[in-house]
Design a protein that fits this description.
mainly alpha, globular, two-stranded antiparallel sheet, 10% strand
Length: 153
């Protein structure tokens, strides 16, 4: 007989998320990008060689401006990003990837493809596509809960 705990999806989703991040960090490290953290991995895909203002980067990452400032400093110290003056507003800075940061971003993309290929090999393309669709729909449900303060429609 199944219990409520057996049907609780939160631990399974959490475990999958943690293991995905751990696998990414391991594979990124194997490519010579040591010292990566999950926080770095979440920000790198949001950056490019053109650049972005810190405020917009914080919004896209879903974290505070203070947290993004700390992450950017750490990434800058490791040579992945640089801060340059904004040509349109001399008071503002633009954060952009360095050539090492571009290489890291590419490696992150390649690792995500590799890990998805492993999942596809195990579950098959139809189940992986369905899983992605279901997780996106579930994310929409959770987003709605957070935006409405938990009130249902």
């Amino acid at each position: 007989m199944k219990t409520a705990e057996d049907e609780d999806i939160a631990p399974a989703i959490g475990a999958a998320g943690r293991l995905l991040i751990a696998a990414m960090m391991s594979r990124i490290g194997a490519r010579g990008f040591d010292g990566m953290t999950p926080a770095f991995a979440s920000v790198i895909p949001l950056l490019d060689a053109e650049g972005i203002r810190p405020t917009l980067l914080a919004q896209r990452a879903g974290i505070s401006k203070q947290a993004i400032s700390q992450l950017v400093r750490e990434l800058e110290n490791r040579g992945y990003v640089e801060q340059i003056p904004d040509e349109n507003d001399t008071r503002a800075k633009i954060i952009r990837l360095t050539s090492r940061g571009v290489a890291l971003r590419k490696a992150c993309f390649e690792v995500r493809k590799e890990l998805q290929a492993l999942g596809t090999a195990k579950l098959g393309p139809v189940r992986i596509a369905r899983l992605r669709k279901d997780l996106l729909q579930f994310s929409d449900v959770l987003r709605n809960v957070t935006e409405t303060g938990g009130k249902e429609d």
